Amino acid sequence: RDLHVRSRRQRQMCIRDRIIILFIFFEFIYSQELNLNRNSEKDSNSPILKSLILPGWGEYSLGYKQRGRIMALSESLLFISILSSYSFANKFQENYKAYATQHANVNPANKNRQYWIDIGNYLSMNQFNEEHLRWRDFDATYSQYNNWEWNWDNDNNRIKFEKMRIKSDTWKLRASFLIGGMVLNHIISGIDALYLVRTLNIRNTEITPVYYPDINQYNLSLNLYF
User: Whole-model pTM?
Assistant: First the structure.
C-alpha cells in the first residue's frame, strides 16, 4: 500500500514538473512575441503561435515549405501511432476481460485497474485475502459481496490472462510516451519558427576582427543587426 502511495506521489510530482516546464517555455515564447511585435509591423498572425498550434504551419507561412512538410509529417506519424497504440491497448483490454469472465467467473463491471492486476497474480479471491490478512494489510482485502469474487479454473489460464493484461498496459504506456513526443514536436516547431523569424529580421551582419594583445590572439566577432 505504501508503495502504491509513493508511486502515486511520484507520478503527481512528474506531472507537476512537466506543467512547470511547459509554463516556463510558453512564458519564454510569449516574451519573444512581445519583442517581435515591438520591432516589427508584420501581420499579427504569428508564425510561432501557428507552429505551436500545428507543427509546420508557421514554417510554411514563412515560405519554408520543406521544413513545414517535415514538421507536419512528424505530427501526422505521431498522431497515427498514438491512435494505433490506444487501439491495440483497448483490444487487449477487451480480450483479457472477456477471458477472465470465461475462465475465472469474473464480473467485469466497475472494476478498477488494481483489481485486474490482483486477479492476474492470485488464483482466487480467497487466496488473495488470506495472504493479505497474514500481512495484516486489511484495507487491501476484497469483500465477498458486490461481485469481487474470482476463481481461476487453472493456473495456465491465469498466466495467459496476465500476459494479455501486460500487453494492454504496455501499449498504453507507449501511447503516453508518444503523446509526450507530440508535445515535444509542437515545442520544437515553435522554436524553429522563432529561429526563422529572427533570421528573416536580420537587416545586416558585420564581421569584425578582434585582437587580444595579452594573449597574442585574433578572433572574429559576428554582429547581427535586426
Answer: 0.70
